[in-house]
Each structure stands twice: as C-alpha cells, then as structure tokens.
Amino acid sequence: MKAAFRTDLGVCLQGLAEDLLNPETTDQYTSSVDLVFTSPPFPLNRKKKYGNLQGQKYVDWIAGFAPIFREVLKPRGSIVMEVGNAWEPGRPVMSTLALEALLAFLKEGEFQLCQQFVWHNPARLPSLTQ
C-alpha cells in the first residue's frame, strides 16, 4: 500500500485491495471516507496477468468488499465502481456475471444503487466530419 498523493483534504491510497482492505489498515479510517473509487478486474473468459476471477468466485470476491467499504465510509459517503462486461464463453451473448456481482455487493453491504452511467471519450472516436 502506498499513498498515491496527499492534500490537506485527505489521502489517495493505491494498491491491491487484498493488501489495503484489512483491519490493520482500515481501522484508522472507520467512518471517515467520503469516496471509494475502484475498478476491479472484469470477469473475463481469458486469464490475465492480474488474476481475474470467474463465475461464483468472482461474485463472492466482489461482494466480500462490501462490509469493508461500509465500515470505512462516512454515513453520506459514496462508492464509484467500474464493473466491466464480459461475454459468455463461445457464444455471442453478454455475460450477466458483472451484474450479478454488483447485485451481490449491494445486498451484502446494504447499499442502494444510485446511478449507472456510460462514459465515452470523444477523442478516441473517429470524426464524423472527416
């Protein structure tokens, strides 16, 4: 775990969730965090170097962070989680695994889903006027 940067308003911690989110490191942050911003590995069909999980193991892994996030968040704190899509193996069908993981996370943490959003970067899209 390392402090990515620090200001008078707080600190941004960077590292693997498994290293950062344990009682030894989170006790000092109980009910003090305004925002948890995370982008966990997606449940992709092909194994990646960073060790993406699949199936129920993925759902359980994501949901396992909910109690920890609940503990460190302020009463009006927020979580922003990027949950990516995956496809069913060998089929042109989107997997619902990421959605199942999100729902399990919400249930385990007794959170409410406030908003889903789609983001795009216009700089990465070809110009329609060219």
Short description:
With 130 residues, the chain is of the alpha+beta class. The chain contains 5 helices and 4 strands.
Number of helices: 5
Class by alpha and beta content: alpha+beta
Approximate helicity band: 25-40%
The average pLDDT score comes to 84
What global shape is seen?
globular
What fraction of residues sit in β-strands?
15-25%
Give me the side-by-side strand order of the main sheet: 1-2
In total, the number of strands is 4
Number of domains: 1
Radius of gyration, in Å, reads: 17 Å
Largest sheet: 2 strands, antiparallel
Detail the poorly predicted runs: none
Report on the architecture of this protein.
- The chain is α+β, with helices and mostly antiparallel strands.
- It has one domain.
- 29% of the residues lie in helices and 20% in strands.
- It has five helices and four strands; from the N terminus they run ββααβααβα.
- It has helices at residues 17-20, 23-26, 55-64, 66-72, 97-109, and strands spanning 2-7, 10-14, 33-38, 73-81.
- The strands form two sheets. Strands 1-2 form a two-stranded antiparallel ribbon. The chain has a two-stranded parallel sheet with strand order 3-4.
- A hairpin with a 2-residue loop joins β1 (2-7) and β2 (10-14).
- α4 crosses α5.
- The longest helix has 13 residues, at 97-109.
- 11% of the residues are buried.
List the defining traits of the structure above.
130 residues; two-stranded parallel sheet; two-stranded antiparallel sheet; 4 strands; alpha+beta
